[in-house]
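Trying the structure run again after the queue cleared.
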Amino acid sequence: MTTPLHQLKAEFFKTLAHPMRIRVLELLSERDHTVAEMLAVTGVEASNLSQQLAVLRRSGLVAARREASTVSYSLTSPQVGELLAAARGILTSLLADQMELLGNLQAETSEPADAGPGPGREAPRRGTARTRPSCARRLSPRSAPSPWPPAKTSVSPRGSPVARKRRSSATKSSSGVPLPP
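Done. Tokens:
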């Protein structure tokens, strides 16, 4: 029985699903590198780099070549570098679209310096402050409203889990039999 192509593709992308593996593949798409060179550039521990290189070797994306006491790595296919370049292009386009959308939102929500009465605007009533509607808040990636309701926190009437544990252990003897109150 053969494995469906979509499952093979999923396994392939799982192999790429680690930032260090992507970084190693980007380095190797430029030229072959020794382990020492990759350690210097990435700044990770040797054991971590070794683990990621082993995953990439097992998947067939990189090949190792020993030269005396050094090991050099290279891509097995230049198409891997092309895939990484395509991914970079897609991400750049997505981020540019998001930046444009954010700029449009900010432009819509900002008011001109002269916010006095004009076409489509009423003058504020005397004695009232002109406020922005709540839906016109400026949104940034960090201050965007969450789609989830706020988490409810509750405290049990018996106190914290530590206090409950202390009370329960104080009511049992060393053999685990409950003590009388």
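The chain has a mean pLDDT of 77. Worth checking whether this holds up in the mutant runs.
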